[in-house]
Amino acid sequence: MPETATTTMRKHNPTLAMILSILFAGLGQLYNRRYAKGIAFIIIEASFLITFWNFLSWGYWGIFTLGEIPKVDHSIFLLIQGLISIIITVFAAGLYYLNVMDARNNAIDIKLGKGKPSIREGLKNFYDTGFPYFMVIPGMIMLVFIVVLPLLFMVSLAFTDYNLYNSPPRNLLSWVGFENFINLVSIPLWKSTFLSVFSWTIVWTVVATTTQIALGLFLALLVNDPRVKYKRFIRTILILPWAVPAFVTILIFAAMFNDRFGAINRDILGTIGMALPWLTDPFYTKIAIIMIQTWLGFPFVFALFTGVLQSISKDWYEAADVDGGTRFQKFRFITMPHLLYATAPLLIMQYAGNFNNFNIIYLFNNGGPAVRGQNAGGSDILISWVFKLTFETNNYNMAAAISILLGLIVAGFAFFQFRRTRSFKEEGNI
Question: Looking at the 3D structure of the chain, how many domains does it have?
Fold first, then answer.
């Protein structure tokens, strides 16, 4: 290689290539004599600016101001456009970062004297390193606009004053900061309702889920006992409640628990002269839905535990018998560790699912009965209360604030429990 060319390579400046790429995409590539790539980056950035400049400027103006002229500016549309502008900007920033790093890496290669890769080598490098990302990008973009955008919109509403009496286009929304969260724990009506619903949600989640897991475990151990005959028939019968759609079962139970003509009061409790207010007293409504959820949930847990119990080697129990282990010791040190090792994540999902179990609360008694001094029903949990605030009373801001708290609680609980289940990831720890 001639001395002049070598000296030029050594003087090639990667920092200058980065600066040029930061000023405008593609300039760094032109500095590196990657003309085709540089022109492509220039065309992409120019097209982006021409296409999205007005949209982005209007979007950022809208998300900061939420409009200035009532009945002309629609705060919700401006908010959504602003969120889309942020997402587009994030994608553009990611591509811009790739442009800058590409210019820097090419400049470093030139300074080290590496030759310019051929088209075939470039395609091979793209296939080895970039092809998986290229195939994932379309799905990721769709996921962002289907999942992330609605979540961002919900989070944004929690910091506005969007409700029935202040809704666009008649009125403009305003950013209120954490006022909705403060009202949730300071205004007497909201505070009493939130504490009541939140405490019942915790009780409902723990009691209903634990009961269905305990019943499923008990029946699985019972049916798996060697002394029990006709195991297949019994398992089929016990799984039948799982085969019936849940909403059908809930509606049937709602009719059976009816205070006036339900079979529970008329044909069962009526024989001993009793009639309980299942649908009109919050306490008995809560008892009823816990029993219904136990009925709906135990077949899945039963099937889950049955499969695990059948996979446990009998040699473990035979060795325990030789050592003089009792039935309880075998259950504690052999059966339960194996069950938890295989099912702990699914059991955690049972708790998280019941925490947001909207169907049974809404279909059984619509979250009722009504409670004096609260804007939620006696059996409402957080998710059903959010539904009522959204679709019945149009308190969108408070519903969004409660949804954020609900999501944080579920995510925190799941994260903590999954961290706790690390002790079951290695079979040698059993």
Answer: 2
Full domain range(s) for residue 212: 180-429
Domain CATH code at residue 229:
1.10.3720.10
Residues 221 and 146 in one domain: no
What are the tens digits of pLDDT across the range 184-239?
999 999 999 999 999 999 999 999 999 999 999 999 999 988 888 888 899 989 98
For residues 72 and 78, give the distance between their C-alpha atoms in angstroms, rounded to a whole number: 11
Residues 378 and 267 occupy one common structural domain: yes
135 three-class SS: helix
Encode 197-229: b = buried (16+ Cβ within 10 Å), e = exposed. bbebbeebbebbbebbbebbbebbeebbeeeee
- Asked whether residue 108 is assigned to any structural domain, the reply reads yes
Is pTM beyond 0.85 here?
no
Count of C-beta atoms within a 10 Å radius of residue 324: 7
Cα angle 261, 265, 270 (rounded to 5 degrees) comes to: 115
- The answer to whether position 175 is within a domain reads no
Tell me how far CA of residue 122 lies from CA of 56, 109, 125, in angstroms: 34, 14, 5
Question: Residue 425: phi, psi to the nearest 5?
Answer: -75, -30
Candidate from 100-104, 148-152, 155-159, 179-183 with smallest mean pLDDT? 100-104
